Amino acid sequence: MAAKRSERGLHELYAADPERAQARLFGRRDVLAGMGAVLGAELVFGRFMPTGLIPAALAETTEAFVIPGKDPGLVVLNDRPLNAETPPHLLDDPVTPAERLFVRNNGLPPLSVDTGKWALTIDGESARSTRRYTLATLRARFKTYSYQLTLECGGNGRAEFNPPARGNQWTTGAVGCPRWTGVRLRDVLKDAGVRDDAVYVGYYGADTHISGDPNKVVISRGVPIAKAMEKESLIAWAINDEDLPLHNGYPLRLVFGGWPASTSGKWLTRVSIRNRVHDGPKMGGYSYRVPCQPVVPGAQVPEQDMCIIESMPVKSLVTYPKSGLVHRGGQKLDVRGHAWAGDRTVSDVDVSIDFGQTWQPARVRKPSNRRAWQQWSIGLEFPQRGYYEIWARATDSSGIAQPMVVPGWNPRGYLNNATHRIAVKVV
Ligand SMILES: Nc1nc2c(c(=O)[nH]1)N[C@H]1C(S)=C(S)[C@@H](COP(=O)(O)O)O[C@H]1N2
Ligand SMILES: [Mo]
Prior knowledge:
By secondary structure, the protein is an alpha+beta fold. It folds into three domains: 10-58, no CATH class; 98-308, Alpha-Beta Complex (Sulfite Oxidase, Chain A, domain 2), CATH 3.90.420; 315-426, Immunoglobulin-like (Sandwich), CATH 2.60.40. It contains seven helices and 26 strands. It has a five-stranded mixed β-sheet with strand order 5-4-15-10-11. Strands 6, 9, 12, 13 and 14 form a five-stranded antiparallel β-sheet that branches. A five-stranded mixed β-sheet has the order 19-26-25-21-22, with no helix packed on it. A hairpin with a 2-residue loop joins strand 1 (75-79) and strand 2. Helix 1 packs across helix 2. The structure holds the ligand Nc1nc2c(c(=O)[nH]1)N[C@H]1C(S)=C(S)[C@@H](COP(=O)(O)O)O[C@H]1N2 and molybdenum atom. Residues 101-107, 151, 153, 205, 207, 218-219, 247-249, 261-262, 264-267 line the site of the ligand Nc1nc2c(c(=O)[nH]1)N[C@H]1C(S)=C(S)[C@@H](COP(=O)(O)O)O[C@H]1N2.
């Protein structure tokens, strides 16, 4: 993964001293001219470009490793456990194809799955009964629903934090929004019986710990009972009308749209209805938790000051064109992407071609259902030939917009919802 390392090198150089990094890369006398030479076009709005910003054309990664059943364009960040993200241009479909959905495994998927024997158990202190459902009973006993639901890893965007956070260095691709099919979690919970003191549900899956120890639980997270009872919260067996891919949880998983994807348990075998906040592995400490109050970058935060991440923040992607496009001047460039906002909806997407000096409103579509991402599009004109960056910024239904720089440093690098940007050369 040499390319990966040198790419980190560029980020490290900038992190250490942005002005020196720029001088080293683009020359001391006229940084903008030097940058233009490297990018192969004049930076038309270069006078507005923030110092220390790595040009989007250089910040991209282009590595290809092939995972069976997955698009060869997915970028593998780790192969044991397997973690792979989807480059933005491969997320252009309004409904994400299964082969383009990212993979985030904390352990090793089950080696063999016998769908005839697979069963889901509902239990816990706040369950009126312990029930076991085979895949066939789930399908036969409960009504089937399909929803398009956004799945985003809480650590998506981690690579941009400074000081860096350990863990998979996700850039922008740990997100997708396929159409999921299954039964409502609430129908199954109600069938087993939910006591009044229920506050949380916690999942268990059939994956095994990376150490090989069969008794070690890889990850067991969950959501408050109110989220579990939402009509869109599914126990799913299909993506876009096909079986779940093995790495995305075959044969059964939870899907909680708009919440950190770590709550959406894969290879699902058990859901416990809890009378307290679920306490499985990766619910406590620094896992999927952020400081309850903002801290200075690099701070040591006591564990008791960390809060569990719930709904994900507003965010967007530019999925067309692919960064690096060469566009013939004089004609409009159609630009598009998606925007999402956890439990909220997206009300606006604005686009800038001059490093955020001015913004133009994009057309934003309604989601196909709650908890699904929304499509936006805009036709852009460029004043002259040269190098441009297209920045997209979404605003949610509460008026909260994406930040243009990396927000709220936290020890494990979660919730980076900074604006996405791509490079375009107009010739
Ligand atoms: N059983 C189990 N469920 C799991 C995980 C896991 O490692 N094991 N990873 C979680 C995390 S951290 C994420 S981001 C999502 C990723 O879902 P995907 O691989 O289908 O994209 O699954 C979640 N569910
Ligand atoms: Mo995750």
